[in-house]
Write a structure and sequence with these properties.
This protein has helices at about 25-35, 45-65, 75-85, 90-95, 125-135, 145-150, 155-165, 180-185, 210-215, 230-240; strands at about 15, 25, 105, 115-120, 140-145, 175, 195, 220. By secondary structure, the protein is of the alpha/beta class.
Length: about 240
């Protein structure tokens, strides 16, 4: 699907989700699990599924809290609580949450050619986002965490707050996320300039990808790591078509 976004001069900010969208969290976490102290409760063959389950239940938790009208919880606490439900207490204490701060970018030099203002809007702590940005080498201009803004996605107010802080309007922004709920929530705050979603092997497992393709302005598929996949393809489209 080729999308031409216009006018060029109106696009001022490219707003990214981070883990899953810009970073291969699964390939980062599984080796860390493998390096954890061995336990009969956690055979090596189960680690990839454990990582996927941890991520999926994490999203269930933050959505349930939002729908119940509960205050935002520290994301580190959510990750720890979710892991508690998947593992025995002793393994959780040994593993902790250290490796979430070390993530690999999907593509080397990813997003370096995505021009204009590049910012991150994520559920998480500012410290975690700083660590991920540093370890992945992604060149963002600013990191806006749920901790910093005092709100949690998918609350529409977090998108309004971001635009207020950046002094931009919805039609001056391009939202990029590997989560359909993220894009749907952003749409509630106004007419965005454009929205892009690219799929991964481990995000939005319960979504109908064909339906999502019809919802978004750009569907950037694939995680093979070449210039025709994910954010690398986004950079190509912005460079060639804007």
């Amino acid at each position: 699907m080729t999308v031409v976004i216009s006018p060029v001069s109106n696009l001022k900010a490219v707003i990214f989700d981070l883990m899953g969208t810009c970073c291969d969290w699964h390939s980062s976490i599984v080796p860390a699990l493998q390096s954890s102290p061995p336990t009969p409760l956690l055979p090596s063959s189960s680690l990839p599924n454990l990582a996927t389950d941890w991520r999926a239940v994490f999203f269930q938790e933050i959505h349930l809290r939002f729908e119940a009208g509960l205050p935002a919880e520290d994301i580190d606490a959510t990750h720890r609580r979710v892991l508690n439900r998947l593992l025995e207490e002793e393994l959780m204490r040994r593993f902790g949450g250290r490796t979430l701060a070390r993530c690999f970018a999907w593509v080397d030099e990813v997003a370096r050619e995505v021009f204009r203002v590049r910012v991150v809007l994520v559920n998480g702590t500012t410290r975690l986002q700083l660590d991920i940005a540093k370890s992945s080498g992604l060149p963002f201009h600013a990191l806006f965490s749920s901790q910093l803004l005092g709100l949690t996605k998918p609350d529409p107010e977090i998108y309004r707050k971001l635009m207020e802080v950046m002094k931009v309007e919805p039609d001056e922004c391009l939202m990029v996320a590997a989560h359909a709920y993220d894009l749907r929530a952003a749409k509630k705050v106004g007419k965005w300039h454009a929205q892009g979603l690219y799929s991964t092997n481990t995000e939005d497992l319960d979504e109908n990808m064909a339906g999502i393709r019809a919802e978004v302005d750009m569907f950037l598929d694939g995680t093979k790591g070449d210039e025709h996949c994910g954010i690398a393809e986004l950079a190509n489209r912005l460079d060639l078509e804007l």
